[in-house]
Automatic annotation (TrEMBL):
It comes from Advenella faeciporci. It comes from the Bacteria. Pfam families: ChaC. PANTHER family: CATION TRANSPORT PROTEIN CHAC-RELATED, GLUTATHIONE-SPECIFIC GAMMA-GLUTAMYLCYCLOTRANSFERASE 2. This is glutathione-specific gamma-glutamylcyclotransferase. One of its GO terms (molecular function) is glutathione specific gamma-glutamylcyclotransferase activity. Gene3D superfamilies: Gamma-glutamyl cyclotransferase-like. Its EC number is 4.3.2.7. GO terms for biological process: glutathione catabolic process. Keywords: Lyase. The keyword Lyase applies. It is an enzyme of class 4 (lyase). GO terms for cellular component: cytoplasm.
């Protein structure tokens, strides 16, 4: 297995130098502000586009396939906690600007919303690299407003311009508190395929990762 390419490591230097975990107080404030901004608090929906599709970890009443306009799924976020370390960051999905993204929306149960959101924030917002937004999503049963974790393109954790080879090398060499980075990418690709969600770029990347893993 190759080590990450020097160019890829160079692109991670700023993130490695500036990485900082959010405090519990920072996460709580962000969560409360986001809930307060909900335009229709009687229904709480969450849009999943990565691991939330195959490991939501919250109670939900209903799920639907959904399409989000103006953003696309991308491995554009350095992960120094869940799927990497500060010394060897991995990559996780973010909603990057432009295009469309197909995923799933989940309608949460009304009880214990704050506790469910605290768990969600602990998982998705360890360092505040996402911007939580309430965004209109299209479903077969009509439009809804759902919470989506959008990439903060001004964050030092934002990465773009990686070649496919660089991306594969980074993914193969990273492991974090939630497990190996290759598992994360492959499980997401598999979950999308099972849900009949087409993401050719991700499927091609997943095949390259599997080929590299299979090499002696």
């Amino acid at each position: 297995m190759k080590t990450p390419l020097p160019t890829a490591l160079h692109k991670a230097i700023e993130h490695i130098q500036k990485f900082r975990l959010w405090t519990d107080e920072e996460r709580e404030l962000s969560m409360l502000q986001t809930l307060a901004e909900h335009p229709s608090p009687e229904e709480i929906w969450v849009f999943g586009y990565g691991s939330l599709i195959w490991r939501p970890e919250f109670n939900f009443q209903e799920d639907r396939l959904a399409t989000l306009q103006g953003y696309h799924r991308s491995l554009c976020l350095w992960s120094s906690v869940n799927r990497g370390t500060p010394e060897q960051p991995g990559l996780v999905f973010g909603l990057d600007v432009g295009g469309t993204c197909q995923g799933k929306v989940y309608k949460l149960h009304d009880d214990n919303i704050h506790e469910q959101f605290r768990l969600l924030w602990k998982r998705e917002m360890p360092s505040g690299a996402y911007i939580p937004k309430w965004i209109r999503c299209e479903t077969m049963m009509g439009p809804i407003t759902a919470l989506a974790f959008v990439m903060d393109i001004n964050s030092h954790a934002y990465v773009q311009g990686l070649t496919r080879e660089e991306t594969v090398d980074i993914v193969l060499n990273a492991t974090g508190s939630c497990g190996p980075c290759p598992e994360y990418v492959l499980e997401t690709a598999n979950a999308l395929a099972q849900a009949s969600i087409n993401d050719e770029n991700l499927f091609e990347l997943a095949e390259l990762i599997k080929q590299r893993i299979a090499k002696p």
